[in-house]
Amino acid sequence: MKTLLPFFFCFFSNTIVFSQENYPKPEKTATRLFYIQHSNNHNTYVYDANMEGESINTKNPIVEYRIVYTEGGVKKPLSKVQKDFAYGMNTKIIAPNLIEMHLAASSKLKFYLIHYPNQKSKVYVTINNRKLYLENIFVELEDSSTSIKTKAKYVLFSGKDFTSNENAIEKLIVE
């Protein structure tokens, strides 16, 4: 069993590393929080902080849009269906510089937008009991040529460990 453990670790690690190979990365901006990509195509859903000077706009804290790489990298707003049922972000003010959020697709997973004066805003999430500052999410979707409703197999959360600030990837199996 001890000889198989390194093999499974290497296989699992390579699966994570190569799952997003050759995907475009949106250009970083001063207000970029994170972005989401999925296995069906390279189109990307982007979330930026909506700033008013040095503060976050509490009425509309997130600017959400998509980069349609299948159409040459055109920036477009989310469609109504995307916003209402999948990639739209619902927000709730917890404190002046802390906003709780969740995607329209699931209210179970909470994200937290924090803003420190004179610093870049960040989003953190807790996955598998590990808190990390989020940089991107990759959703591996099931093949569903006959179904309108697409389901996820798993989700990879990439960013920096909240405590150590080291690179971190957490995998969430969707049941």
Roughly how much helix do the residues carry, as a percent range? 10-25%
Q: Can you summarize the main beta sheet?
A: 11 strands, mixed
> What is the gyration radius calculated from CA atoms?
17 Å
Low-confidence stretches: 1-19
SSE run: HEEEEEEHEEEEEEE
Instruction: Tell how many strands the DSSP assignment holds.
Output: 13
Secondary structure tally, helices: 2
SS content category: mainly beta
- How would you state the average pLDDT, rounded? 86
Strand content: over 45%
Which geometry do the CA atoms define? globular
| Alpha-carbon distance between the two ends | 28 Å
Overview of this structure, please?
This protein is mainly β. The chain is built from two helices and 13 strands, in the order H-E-E-E-E-E-E-H-E-E-E-E-E-E-E. Strand 12 and strand 13 form a beta hairpin.
Provide a brief overview of the structure.
By secondary structure, the protein is mainly β. The chain is 12% helix and 47% strand. It contains two helices and 13 strands; from the N terminus they run H-E-E-E-E-E-E-H-E-E-E-E-E-E-E.
Offer a few descriptive terms:
175 residues; mainly beta; eleven-stranded mixed beta sheet; two-stranded antiparallel sheet; globular; disordered N terminus
Write the layout of secondary structure elements.
Layout (H helix, E strand, L loop, with lengths): L3 H15 L13 E7 L2 E9 L1 E2 L2 E2 L5 E7 L5 E4 L2 H6 L3 E7 L2 E6 L7 E4 L7 E6 L2 E12 L10 E10 L5 E7 L2
